[in-house]
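Render DUF423 domain-containing protein in 3D.
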Amino acid sequence: MTAADPGTRIVRWALVAGAVAGLLAVMAGAFGAHGLRHVVSERGLEVFQTAVSYQMYHALALVAVSLMPALGLSGNLLTLACGFWLAGMMLFSGSLYLLVLTGIHWLGPVTPVGGVCFMVGWVLLIVAALKK
């Protein structure tokens, strides 16, 4: 695999994005557990934890995709899957974080769009694997 190989680019940016997203998920989880416990309702803590969990799941998915070129699986579909997962993290988890922290309820309709982004990413991964 050369530096110009698309698989190398997927490895680098998916690994970095996954690591950053994972770090931020751990930080958000700690903030939620310690900083928000006496500030928001039990339901608010549950919603915040859901955002953290989905962010971490998809951070790990990005890291997993970064390993796929070693298995002979790379290409534009994987890149698109990663992009959809990143968009999902921003829209789904981001809207839930903001909802809990600010109480702005018009963000609610954004959350399902992020969920759809997560699902599209997984479908793209399935298609990429089947094409191989």
